[in-house]
Amino acid sequence: MASELESAFAYHEPSTKTVLNYTGFLLIPNIANTCLDKLLYCGLISQLLIGVLWGTPGAQWFDQETERVIQQIWYLGLILLIYEGGLSTSIKALKANILLSTAVAITGICVPMGLPFILKELVSATYLQSFAAAAALSATSLGSTFTILSTTQLITTRLGVVTTSDAMLDDVVGLVTIQIISNVGSADSFSAVTVIRPVFVAGTSESLCCLLCRSDCLLV
């Protein structure tokens, strides 16, 4: 009986400080988000700033375990947000603007990717450091893009379609390059597999998604 009690999760009422801390973290970002969305359409910035203020490296009112839980819940919310953005995107408008979206995406990838290599002599950076900076600059926050476009009611316009398509392509390239950097940093020696594997996985996933979408359209 004692072992069962020890292995069970005991309930303890949270302290007043904890309740006020969590309540403030839930209410203040939403209030600030609503106010700034009505005034400047930038409520997302207030949520980011309040998150930094509440956690690390701000006031550190949350311990690391709580921050990990919040981060995991946030990741689930990000997945749902991107899924919602994908559902609200018009396939017909996407096909009509695919060339423009591709051109914008290529520009958004090539310019940030090339800039660190051009400026690397100013800070005596290595090629790997320049590549890491290029990967960070080329990636676009898809979740932030969907949030801002939804707030401004532009997600169904041509600008919104081109922007979301560009963000998707940029994110794919950014995630692939980040994975390459991670593999290079963790590997003892550089090999072609380090670069080819993330590219192959990303290309295969994209191809399968396109085939599935095409088959669904044919069935409908």
UniProtKB/TrEMBL annotation:
Residues 44-202 form the Cation/H+ exchanger transmembrane domain. It is found in: Membrane. GO terms for biological process: proton transmembrane transport; sodium ion transport. Keywords: Antiport, Ion transport, Membrane, Sodium, Sodium transport, Transmembrane, Transmembrane helix, Transport. InterPro entries: Cation/H_exchanger_TM (IPR006153), Na+/solute_symporter_sf (IPR038770). GO terms for molecular function: antiporter activity. Gene3D superfamilies: 1.20.1530.20. Its main location: membrane. It is a multi-pass membrane protein. GO terms for cellular component: membrane. The chain crosses the membrane at residues 39-57, 69-86, 98-119, 131-149. The keyword Translocase does not apply. This is Cation/H+ exchanger. The lineage of its organism: Eukaryota, Fungi, Dikarya, Ascomycota, Pezizomycotina.
